[in-house]
Amino acid sequence: MIPRLELRNITKSYPGIVANDDISMSIMPGKIHAVLGENGAGKSTLMKIIYGVAQADSGEIWCDGKRIEAHNPASSRALGIEMVYQHFALFESVTVVENIALSVSSTFDLKTLARQITHLSNRYGMPIDPHRRVLDLSVGERQRVEIVRCLLQAPKLLILDEPTSVLAPQAVGKLFETLRQLAAEGCSIVYISHKLDEVQELCDSATVLRNGKVTGSAKPKETTSLELARMMVGSKLPEMRVVPSVPSARPVLEVRGLTSPARDKYGVALKNVSFEVHGGEIVGLAGVSGNGQADLIALLSGERRHADASVVRIDGKAAGHLNASERRGLGMAFVPEERLGRGAVPPHTLWENAVLTANRRGGLVRHGMVDRGKAAGFARDIIERFKVKANGPSSSAQSLSGGNLQKFIVGREIALKPKLFLVSQPTWGVDVGAAAFIRQNILDLSRAGSAVLVVSEELDELFEICDRLLVICQGQVSPPLIRTKTNREEVGLLMTGADRGNDIEERSEVAVQN
Amino acid sequence: MDLFIAIFTGTAIAATPLIFAALGELVVEKSGVLNLGIEGMMLVGAAAAFWAVIAGLPMPVAILAGALAGAAASLLFGVLALTFLTNQYAAGLALAIFGSGVSAFLGRGFGSAPIDALKRIHIPLLSDIPVIGPMFFRFDPMVYFAILMFFVISWFLYRTKSGLILRTIGESPETSHAIGYPVIRIRYLAVLFGGLMAGLAGAYLSVAYTPLWVENMTAGKGWISLALVVFATWRPLRILLGAWLFGGMTILQLQGQALGLAVPSELLSALPYLATIIVLVIISQNRQTLSLHFPASLAKPFRPAT
Fold first, then answer.
1. Which of A79, A140, A250, A263 is the most buried (most CB within 10 A)?
2. What value does the mean pLDDT of chain B take?
3. Domain B2-293 falls in which CATH fold?
């Protein structure tokens, strides 16, 4: 049988690093093949080469027995190769249907296409409203758009980069059904993930990469996760040290009766949200994306202010009316969901990015002048302490891989020793080693006395580090659940609002009509 | 009533070159390219059209010559900014200065005699209706063509796939490239179109608006067109309204000068520029709509990844 896709001795160098070193693999029609690897292992580069965004320095790509030479994304799509990017390839200023129309080569009939999108997205349990602007969609919703866009093309080879990071457990199951169905119809799937259990559940074969080289091939269903993880990380995996929490007597963050209209017509109104976070504990906020997390985090971080100052109290002081900088003055630190653009200024250096939030506490600015030596030193400390792979404090934020930049941003905030630490999607698109490292640091921060609120769409992560869990659904926040006394099923039900008598199907309809 | 008709028709005529130039620049900027050289392209277009009339070529050919000269000038900018990735601000300013110099050089042989202006249309019956006739049916064809171009460009940008591609390239050329669109080629086409439109605007000035060659006869209309695009928050309808506002103020201040208002004529002449910018600044206050229409990659050089 001829492989759907075959890579022979692919090598690609960038100045200073060999991103892919002599990589070979092959994928049969109708098979699901995993590519496993840490950040910087070369997975993204390899996918770009397959898809034609980048060209290999040497090596051959064969598709259905024909060699592909000098291809580009358009010719790849003509061959039936589709890709869901980790950083989504969506235009924010136009609608979902317009975004999808751009990659559909047939006639420009938005009405028909919108109907197809609604139909297909509902069929695969990923409802999206085709007429919303991407600007107003959450990360999870944007991913749905990407997946639906590919499915519309009836692809022969589908490349998915960390596709489940933002899905509720129920939706992951649904997605896997979709992918299996696609594979049964003859479509080959390249599945990039750091979640070993998913790879074992879904994939027929796997190629493991480390530092740009193939370190192993495996049949995931017949291999233990420990073996797979070792091939990936190359050494023993760090183990999480969870010591019991000792919550402070007084809460550090108090939210009382927070009600707020949606930030725009696609946001979610918050209804009477109340909870508190004590020093020394980690509280997790679970929920399917687009249920009001963005609105809540904006109101907590100070990006949005509230007319009633007392709805948010930080360290006992009414803070609802304060802006982000004033709240940081009260001892708050914040890691936003988007690393590039909100968490860091992409073209600026790491030390400049460090100054942006650390100027208040780090003594990096004197009389309005930046002390470059100190700033670079501060950035260097973060790089060392948080094991950021970077070319020193003067490398630009955008030159780092996603996981390394995230380590830097989280490190920058933790280095400020905040009383209150808000973090949104701390390990979104981050590999298993870096994610464990970030979680451990968040845990250590809380055990040193800080109050931590983690917003995440990954239940595993929340169950791993949180002491108490809140669930947000349609702008309402559940009473707190003690982590050790609840389970995934209970949280999953709360996430879909099933306890309120509307099941998933109904909710989907609402989301589509919107 | 006659005064009202005069102001109305004068407004439509004065706005015409701005509509051409600003709509052309809108298409360029929507693709993420900033061409500051409108003034230069207009002057080159004006000189080329005027030369063609003197050389005895028929009027439509002369206007076409103006448009093509504008496009040729824009190609210079395109090569610098798109192929060699020169800073777009610098390349555009260079084009503005270059166009002014070239047109002055060409114009040395033109003399100071006026030419026969572009003929106004006369539609039997329609043009003879009292009030309505002179207000709507006695312009030269270019006035109607400018308004037609407004509809064509609005339709193109917001109703066609090509327009959608153009707009998304203006937001993120990287993403457009990643899904397989030829970013550089499309930007070249946009720049050339902007040049054609600026050339048309220039040709209109020299063969219809003031059928006489004067050095630097555009008198800042290229710069005003540029400001129109920005303050109209990259929306065609607002550009049209802004151009009419500017045209209206131009005519009003001329009437004011004729009536001998006790205001220095220099201040009155500045009025259209001031009024247009103030009004456009006020209507461009809404951040959210601004971010929806602003081409996010404007003036950023783009080189496809390898």
1. A140
2. 91
3. ABC transporter involved in vitamin B12 uptake, BtuC (1.10.3470)
